[in-house]
Amino acid sequence: MTRIAQEDLADSLARAFQFVSHHHPPDFVRALRRALAAETHAPARAAIEQLLVNSRLSALGRRPVCQDTGVGQVFLRVGCGVRFFRRDGASPWSLQAMADEGVRRAYRDPVNPLRATMVSDPLGRRLNTRDNTPAVVHCEIVEGDALEVLVVAKGGGGDVKARFATLEPSDSVADWVIAQLPGMGAGWCPPGTLGIGIGGTPEQAMLLAKLSLFDPIDMDLLQARGARNAEEALRLQVCERANALGIGAQGLGGTSAVLDVKLRTAPCHAATIPVALVPNCAAARYVRFTLDGSGPARIEEPSSDLWDGIADRFDMPGAVRVDLDRLGADAVRQWRIGQTLLLSGRVLTARDAAHKRLVDLLARGEPLPVDLRGRVVYYVGPVDAVGDEAVGPAGPTTATRMDRFVEPLMAQAGLLAMIGKAERGPDAIAAIARHGGAYLSATGGAAYLLSRAIRAARVLAFEDLGMEAIHEFELVDFPVTVAVDSRGRTIHAFMQVS
């Protein structure tokens, strides 16, 4: 019998969620380095390099790798010989309460506050719980007398792209997976890992796919030795075919969208093949620990050698420097897709809620609280600042959510250009071309690096929206890639893949 103090589990979870906010798993960093070495497409190389610089800076600065600090997910394997108790003699917590306590402490940490993501009442008022609770808890009772814990902070960009289907036994799983990828777009922030769950029931397949993401990255070893069974053959086939689509890092093209394909299976009904697909993004965040009753877990930090040779800033020879305070339509018309720009000057911020308010004001013929004429808007909701930071980690959010607002803001308010992540839909691209604007892609998953290019910030409107308020940022050499130019050409070639 192993007695484990519930306070030790809550404390361990808090430490783990803090740790994964600023540390990538070592196997992921090594896989990124291999992808950089192999990539020849310049925009994709620039994105991967930013991710590596961001990884190093986040670990050193102990600040989040991504502004979307994720949903707190806790996977417990509880040995039959484990008994929980409270040190203070109080009534025992439930597993959910223990997990919530750990999440609450981690996300409210004053030294490294994390952005709260969870909302209650999903079909009603959708109020933010403000401490990222409740955690998502999965528990399995197993043999033994130890407690094994997997802690995951999973951002919305990856899970929102999850897919499920029930195939027939004669169908090709590989064909189905490859058919999903173009439609998933780049909002899951590749390069990353694809998790595939096969078999069981629908909910079991989804859980298998999710759990497979946290198995060690070993695609390089598998490619070197070849497949030994059907599962490994499927992994190799999907990885090769996925990267051949040309989606690439951040959807910018190239050969490195998928770093690994992971797979877990379970027995299933003879008439079906349940298949689930879940991607893990460039903000891969998870850690494992075991409790044996001797106290809280000690999270081991990777050696600094992991980032040897990685710079502490991003600088790309040949990048075009742009002064946003003097930017005009003539200059925007000179931009071409694939160019790297370094932006300096003032930029506005707005996300979903602010965009809706702006468009509603236009529809009513009322004045806007900010002048958008000739301005650039950055789709971002940053983490709270600490110390002398102007803002906390401030990476881009998925641009397609703002597509419906592009035409009215460009046509009626004079908006010139936008910054976000992932592709734009055909209507947004048509509006950009119609009004001679542009869409610029910032690297999703490089939030701390990007925040260091933001030297000042102030709220201009909709302060009640918190992180979604309209801010004005002052930038110095903020890196972006021209993703849609004034002629309506897009770098996201996978949108044309059938």
Describe the structure.
With 498 residues, this protein is an alpha/beta fold. The protein folds into three domains: 1-24 and 65-154, no CATH class; 155-285, no CATH class; 320-496, fumarase (Alpha-Beta Barrel). 30% of the residues lie in helices and 23% in strands. The chain has a five-stranded mixed barrel with strand order 12-13-14-15-17. Strands 4-2-5-10 form a four-stranded mixed beta sheet. The chain has a four-stranded mixed beta sheet with strand order 6-9-7-8. Helix 2 (26-38) packs antiparallel against helix 3. It is globular and about 75 Å long.
Walk me through the topology.
Layout: E1 2-5, H1 6-22, H2 26-38, H3 42-61, E2 71-79, E3 82-85, H4 95-107, E4 136-142, E5 147-154, H5 156-159, E6 163-167, H6 173-184, E7 192-199, H7 202-212, H8 219-225, H9 230-244, E8 258-266, E9 273-280, E10 286-291, E11 320-323, H10 329-332, E12 340-349, H11 352-363, E13 376-378, H12 403-411, E14 417-420, H13 426-434, E15 438-441, H14 447-451, E16 454-461, E17 470-484
Parallel strand pairs: 1-3, 2-4, 7-8, 11-12, 12-13, 13-14, 14-15
Antiparallel strand pairs: 2-5, 5-10, 6-9, 7-9, 12-17, 15-17, 16-17
Helix pairs in contact: 1-4, 2-3, 6-9, 12-13
The total domain count is 3
Oligomer: single chain
CA-CA gap between termini: 58 Å
Largest sheet: 5 strands, mixed, barrel
Within CATH, the superfamily of the largest domain carries the name Fe-S hydro-lyase, tartrate dehydratase beta-type, catalytic domain
What is the CATH top level name of the largest domain?
Alpha Beta
Q: Which fold does the CATH topology of the largest domain refer to?
A: fumarase
